[in-house]
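CORE FACILITY INTAKE
Project code: CF-77B
Contact: R.S. (postdoc)
Sample description: multi-component assembly, two entities in total
Requested service: structural model of the whole complex
Turnaround: standard
Below are the sequence entries exactly as provided by the requester. Do not edit them.
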Amino acid sequence: MPPILMVDLMTTSQPLLSVKNLKTYFALDDGVVKAVDGVSFDIHAGRTLGIVGESGCGKSITARTILGIVDRPGRIEGGEIWLTRQAEDGTPYQTDLLTLPLEGSEMRAIRGKEIALVFQEPMASFSHYYTVGNQIMESILLHTALGEEGARQRAIDLLGMVGVPKPERRIDDYPFQLSGGLRQRVMIAMALACDPHVLIADEPTTALDVTTQAQVLNLLQTIQKERALSVILITHDMGVIAEMADDVVVMYLGRAVERGPVDAIFYDPKHPYTKALLRSIPSITAKPRTKLATLEGSIPHPFARPKGCPFHPRCAEAIKGVCDRYEPVPIAQGEGRDVSCFLYGGQP
Amino acid sequence: MTILDVKNLKKYFPIHKGLLRKLVGHVKAVDDVSFSVARGETLALVGESGCGKTTASRCIMRALQPSSGEINITIDGKTTDLAPLQKAELKPFRRHMQMVFQDPFSSLNPRMMVGDLIAEPLLINGMDNESERRARVRELLDLVSLPTAYMNRFPHAFSGGQRQRIGIARALALNPSLIVADEPVSALDVSVQAQIINLLLDLQDRLGLSYLFVAHDLSVVKHVSDRVAVMYLGQLVEIAPTEALFVTPRHPYTEALLSAVPKPDPRARQERIILSREVADAANPPSGCAFHPRCSFATDQCKSERPHLQDLGQGHQVRCHHARTLALQGVGPSV
């Protein structure tokens, strides 16, 4: 199983995936929920982009939008998703995924083959009625020229690679026969089945215990190194971000409020939300029985999204008459960094 | 002064198989656990899923009948063992020990208004006067920093953090001495989690409460607890004052747990200790030390001989044959 290293794609400075001004809205009876509202970011080959935020910030919908699998009544309202691909003769070219029909053959060929997804809760995303081998083989049979036997062998190899013990026996197990950690490994094997260039991992370790989480994170790091995979890691856990990501997008209520290299986000956060979020994380090196810095209030209901900057009602530094009226736009803060906040300039 | 003293607590669940439901074994969910909680103290019970921490807390609340052992609770200087008591005999003790649940979305009845939810325990325990009840509900809402106007609303109108405050107000209604909190902040977002942690610390200082804090998140545990007990496969493997457990763990499992916690600092990326294999089956635990198949320090003694909880002094107890000789890595002193 030779890993398909796309040398051309690796050496170009062109991002492998470039998301621009993405918007996904849900039209519900009570109003429109702007789940993703103007999010932009780039992912380069072999790097990990962490998308972090609390519940309702739109991080999972962003992932689903990239793959064009937003459930109804969700609608992709606008934006561009440029994927760098390789023609048969090896020359790279770009496609805007949003211009492709969602159910068309080209989009189907990209899903699972070029961009793969690892879901949060493997038990909810596997079928109970097929063996894990069957489910892994399904995408191999769909996307490659391999026959039944070749696909089965490849599935066994994949299971072995992600550290499933006795893969030749486990392949005939049903998902419910596996532990949570093993299920997540199988899920990763399934995502890697067709050598994707981009792997989107949506809270891949949230349902797992810490020691199992450490195993799975290690596995993701190893696989990424071996295959020069680009990973979009979606999580609410700043600890996971700090350990895994190269670049970070911080989201709040559908907006990317801050974007930058991981070190800058943790050591020089700009947006008041990022700062507050970092201060409120319990620390394992804190003195016992110390209080935490808190962020006032709670995340607004998606229908009651505040006017202006969505963070202004909880922001200690909000500027009256500006933040509650106008929507901030991303302002560049040096190489690969921007922040959407009027404290850093920008015309109201 | 000790308020809760648990001795040799065991809870075995029978496994039946076949047409005749023949008894084929037991899941030893809690296997000989002993600890105590002092007045005003927080003891954290930590471990991974399936380690028996929730089963232990449910036995203490007598939501489950323990298989054997003692659950001694001291109220007004009088100590009673709850383990052998029947349902009716338990009733007078219930008001002194209350529970805060993990999921504030499923633990509040959606058909009851907040005021009624908080007043329910008062009504059950004989506070018949309605205006007295409402006054107490107001007092409780104030205690958990919720506006008293919220009394006439239903739970669906509230966010996760507000619901958890309602759950806490309900638990405090009868002035309990002991609160058993089972993962009280793990369903909450980080920014809200911090508020609830602070509230729990505050209430403890103001009301002199004792907490048995069941949790899996070691960073949260570091913030709230005075002492920590680590469980693995139904047994206590280590118990120590918080600072000692985090800085100088003495059990290899505790060391691995601490190492596995992702640290929110990109400059502190380091090799994690990766435990091999998975937690063993509690119905069929390994011979000797339950942790030995995953332990990198395991010797032949660990395979055959079951370790006992040994006292290392200064309140530090550990269940490991080699505790005195191993040099284990903690998380560095508190800052």
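Facility notes:
- Chain A touches chain B through 50 residues (CB under 8 Å).
- Residues 122-195 of chain A form one domain.
Invoice: internal transfer
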